[in-house]
Amino acid sequence: MSWETVIGLEVHCQLNTKTKAFCGCSTAFGAEPNTQTCPVCLGMPGQLPVLNKVAVEKTILTGLAINAKINLESKFDRKNYFYPDLPKGYQISQFAVPIVEGGYIDIPTKDGGEKRLGVTRIHMEEDAGKSMHEGLDAVSHIDLNRSGIPLMEIVSEPDMRSADEAVAYLKQLHQIIRFLGVSDADMEKGQFRCDANISVRRPGEPFGTRTEMKNMNSFRHIKQAIEFEVLRQIEIIEDGGKVIQETRLWDSVKNESRSMRGKEEAHDYRYFPEPDLPPLRVTQEEVDQLKAGMPELPAQLRHRFEAEYGLSAYDADVLTQTRELADWYEALVAAHPADPKRCANWMANELLGRLKEANQELHDSKVTPARLAALLDRLADNTISGKAAKDVLDAMMDSDDSADAIIEAKGLKQVSDTGAIDALIAEVMAANPAQVESYRAGKEKLMGFFVGQVMKASRGTANPGLVNQRLKALLKG
Ligand code: ADP
Ligand code: MG
Ligand code: ZN
């Protein structure tokens, strides 16, 4: 009998506000340690927090984007624990009443459909500082610049049934957050981090005991970690053992997980209402206003690209991965409106492929929408062949010359002059009398051979459509 995997995800996402959640300190990344701190975020006694309004707005926007309910009144609580990078001895969080509840994210499925994955809640909290041990001998250093940076914690329902579904959910969420502009969500900088709760069961049975996997900072690691953990749990159960509830740490160097703490050592956070902050109240008007100003989201954009430009689901997905890609594509279509599908093909397959190979970013490329459009115009009016257009694009990657200048310089102009093509055909026929005879005797498959020979004789510049047409006429004899 087979096993079913059950996964629920907790994502911590740093909001990109200018200042911290409860004080005016800068949130800029990469400053000298402990230069962006004040008595509030250092946790000095008697200091009072003042809530950052922009952080509230960004959290509400995220809630609206996943179709959740916004609680017009929510509460802050103290989550008590001791850790060297948490000088206050508690973290301000939302426990009993979070600002966002419910909602969902749709992920694409293999059969071309969608699967809906539930979100339990999004609450606001503050980040802790950073302990640094690496390269230090028997001491640790603490940087409190991160202390007090606003976070959203996005908790999912245990709805995922595979590592792939978990990664698909995370990618969708990541994309939504980037489109909203509420976080830079740079995973390498720890701005979007994920804990995965994992269990296995026989289909139809109640949920099994879960473990929580921490410390994962890339989609690839998350997939590996989940797959590793699923196999580990199945092996334990099949050997007659029991999975114990514990927190595990993923080691992305050794590609294995190890126990961090068991249920017995689990924190008892002793949550209680934060006495220094009143309940958080927002009005329906404020929520409506945020909703009205919400940018187009990835799913909407994907559907619009399919409907408006006739793109395949695959191309629409590729071209809406980031706002930048989508804007670039729309600028290209505006400059070459005759054929949005041709625009998509050339951007997604040809341009993005070349950029990847050259390890270049779209915004650093010499190829702009206007320059690519000028090239596509020449393809559309049959000045050049598809093959030649690829050569022109190659050249454009590191040249400022226009498409026309490159076509001219490389002599790529397509020959669409019937007389010139007939002359080439005559040459080819004269050189291959046996094939001409076979063709005339009914071996029509030879057409491909003749087209190839004529194209070769023209060094790729003959218009293939015209070559076909003239060959048919002349081969008849
Ligand atoms: P905690 O407060 O200990 O983190 P929660 O009940 O809030 O626990 O759940 C945390 C996450 O674990 C949620 O994303 C939830 O969907 C997921 N989860 C709960 N039970 C299971 C289970 N049996 N298997 C997998 N994930 C689970
Ligand atoms: Mg948890
Ligand atoms: Zn501060």
Structural key phrases:
477 residues, binds zinc ion, three-stranded antiparallel sheet, binds magnesium ion, Arc Repressor Mutant, subunit A, binds adenosine-5'-diphosphate, alpha+beta, 3 domains, ten-stranded mixed sheet
Can you summarize this structure?
The chain is built from 15 helices and 17 strands. It is of the alpha+beta class.
Radius of gyration: 30 Å
What fraction, in percent, of the residue positions are helical?
25-40%
Structural class: alpha+beta
Instruction: Outline the biggest β-sheet.
Output: 10 strands, mixed
Describe what this molecule looks like in 3D.
By secondary structure, this protein is an alpha+beta fold. It has 3 domains: 10-199 and 263-287, no CATH class; 296-410, no CATH class; 418-474, Arc Repressor Mutant, subunit A, CATH 1.10.10. 39% of the residues lie in helices and 19% in strands. It has helices at residues 53-65, 163-180, 219-238, 284-292, 298-309, 313-319, 323-335, 340-357, 369-380, 386-397, 403-410, 418-431, 433-440, 447-457, 464-475; strands at 4-14, 69-70, 73-74, 77-80, 90-93, 100-101, 104-108, 114-126, 130-132, 141-143, 150-156, 192-201, 211-216, 246-251, 256-262, 272-273, 280-281. Strands 1, 2, 6, 7, 8, 11, 12, 13, 14 and 15 form a 10-stranded mixed sheet that branches. It has a 3-stranded antiparallel sheet with strand order 5-4-16, with no helix packed on it. Strands 3-17 form a two-stranded antiparallel sheet. Strand 13 (211-216), helix 3 (219-238) and strand 14 (246-251) form a beta-alpha-beta unit. The model has no long low-confidence stretch (mean pLDDT 94). It binds adenosine-5'-diphosphate (ADP), magnesium ion (MG) and zinc ion (ZN). Residues 10, 212 line the site of magnesium ion.
